[in-house]
Design a protein that fits this description.
alpha/beta, Rossmann fold, 5-stranded parallel sheet, 13 helices, 5 strands
């Protein structure tokens, strides 16, 4: 008897292992972490312990085999809903067909936030985490096109290049359309960050209805990943780089080796402040996003005029 081809064997093994049947694909800085935490406590849902496996993103900051990815869901066997939440899947053109090929016709949840607010929030978050060396949001926007075209930046940046595309990632309409075309409108749930803030319980009930599970009102949706911009953004970036380079040089993952730069990053962040977006930059971004927002409103059948004020 001829042996079974390796690819066929892998697919057979895959079909008999717990795997996601729904994904939260974004957007970043739009409440996905809050929803992930809430769903983790739902008795009929299993969410991966690692919030963002980012398996279905090419050239991502993580390298993961299919076996490693599937192992994250082994404990979810028997749960009617198994999922994960990787915000890199929304802007990545390769993600929808790749997800469909591997996981099949899963359900997709997309949370969208005012793109102006999302862009600024993402910049502040990256600065807080020591991932962004540029001192102002305005300069980061000015540098965005150059970064996108720079092979050196692609190779050396700490995160996936899309995390530094503060403006471009907010052009949602094509991103959403890719998922609708790939999975069908009935399997793609579009939610707004505005609704999450105004009515958290209703927001979660809407998610449960989409996933066909009962709404559980035993715990509240909590705010996660609040942002404080460090006192010195450039110092925060250098401290993270010091931590990364030390680990590479010594070839170890011992926390003791990198505790000093981590502690310094925490102090630098604690001494920072919450920044506000200038009215001039906001007005400029509103105009740059106007056409995209109007097209998105038509696509998702929601009034998004408040995003353009």
């Amino acid at each position: 008897m001829n042996p079974m081809p390796a690819n066929t064997l892998n697919e057979k093994l895959f079909k008999h292992r717990p795997a996601p049947n729904f994904l939260i694909v974004g957007a970043a800085r739009a409440g996905t972490t809050s929803l992930w935490h809430w769903l983790r406590r739902h008795p009929q849902v299993f969410m991966s312990r690692d919030k963002e496996p980012a398996y279905f993103v090419q050239n991502g900051f993580r390298a993961m085999t299919k076996d490693k990815y599937l192992s994250m869901f082994a404990a979810g066997e028997g749960k009617p809903c198994i999922g994960e939440a990787s915000t890199g899947y929304l802007p990545a053109a390769e993600s929808p067909p790749w997800i469909r090929e591997v996981l099949g016709p899963v359900k997709i949840i997309i949370i969208l936030r005012n793109p102006v607010e999302r862009a600024f929030s993402m910049y502040c978050f990256m600065a807080m985490m020591g991932l962004e060396p540029i001192e102002t949001f305005e300069e980061a926007l000015d540098q965005e096109s150059r970064r996108m075209a720079s092979l050196q930046f692609h190779q050396n940046c700490f995160m996936n290049i899309r995390d530094y595309q503060y403006f471009h990632v907010g052009l949602y309409v094509d991103q959403v359309m890719r998922y609708i075309k790939t999975f069908g409108a009935e399997r793609v749930k579009i939610l707004l960050f505005d609704d999450l803030k105004k009515d958290p319980s209703g927001f979660c009930a809407d998610v449960c209805q989409f996933l066909e599970i009962p709404y559980v009102n035993g715990h509240a949706l909590t705010r996660e990943n609040s942002v404080t911009v460090p006192r010195s953004i450039s110092l925060q970036y250098r401290l993270r780089d010091m931590r990364v380079q030390t680990r590479k040089r010594l070839g170890v993952s011992d926390r003791a080796v990198t505790c000093l730069p981590i502690m310094a990053m925490l102090v630098n962040a604690k001494r920072g402040t919450k920044r506000t977006l200038s009215s001039a930059v906001r007005a400029d971004l509103v105009e740059r996003y106007r056409t995209s927002v109007e097209q998105l409103a038509d696509l998702v059948h929601r009034d998004l005029s408040h995003w353009l004020k």
